[in-house]
Amino acid sequence: MYKKLILYSNLTIALAWRDVRVRYQLSVLGLYWAIINPLLMAIIWSFVFSYIFRATGLNGIPYVVFLFCGLTYWNLFANSLSNAATSLTGNAMLLSKVYFPRIILPTAAVIARLVDFAFSMLVLVLIIWYYNLTPVWDPLVLLPLLAIEFFYTLGLAYIVASLNVLYRDVAQLVNIILMFWLYLSPIFYILEQVPEKIRSYFAYNTIGLLVDMQRNVLLAGDGANWHLVLISLLISIGVFILGWLVFHWLEPLFAEVM
Prior knowledge:
Shape: globular
Transmembrane segments: 31-54, 60-82, 103-129, 141-161, 173-191, 226-250
Main location: membrane
Order of helices and strands: HHHHHHHHHHHH
Domain ABC transmembrane type-2: 29-250
Low-confidence stretches: none
GO cellular component, one term: ATP-binding cassette (ABC) transporter complex
Number of strands: 0
Mean pLDDT: 85
InterPro entries: ABC2_TM (IPR013525), ABC2_TM_bact-type (IPR047817), ABC_2_transport (IPR000412)
Number of helices: 12
Structural class: mainly alpha
Largest sheet: none
Helix content: over 70%
């Protein structure tokens, strides 16, 4: 199946770009929504958590910068998973007319969210510049961490996309799970603030670890914890392989249901 995916790489990119255009072309602000949404979320939540709940993030980093950085990496994961869940059921007409590997659709849904991520990163750069901070752009650390997050997201995307074909309430369930997952991940707080007796369990929250490490590297210049990186890598590989197998196993049932 992976050979077919490589052969259809141009179609994957085309479908991803179509997803971006369809999402924004009929709106007045267009792609600017990719910037406005996370920025407004960061401002509102920053006010609530920093001024009302007195939450703190990294030392010396304004809380709005701390929170926006975490949301940027989190939204790449959450939005990808949410869109991938309906990537097959939302393209039923296309699937009935043209043959191509079905796994292309959830893959394209995840790739399309990289556009939103790129715009959010641009805003993050501007916010960092506004606060006169000095980010640490270490591609040898940040890019591998982003790649791990990408493949972890792909694996889960394949699972939810295929299950949603058989059980249409999966897409709704995914959004509910993501809401709880957000608060159980170190987005609004740092991992060190988690009570030590339960902190070890957070090592299995791969996306939470990745967001926390990417933010610490970018904003504080902390070196990556390579032990945790290895754990995240192994879990991501396992999830990606599992997602691939689940999709391949359920794919013959798609025609009957759709």
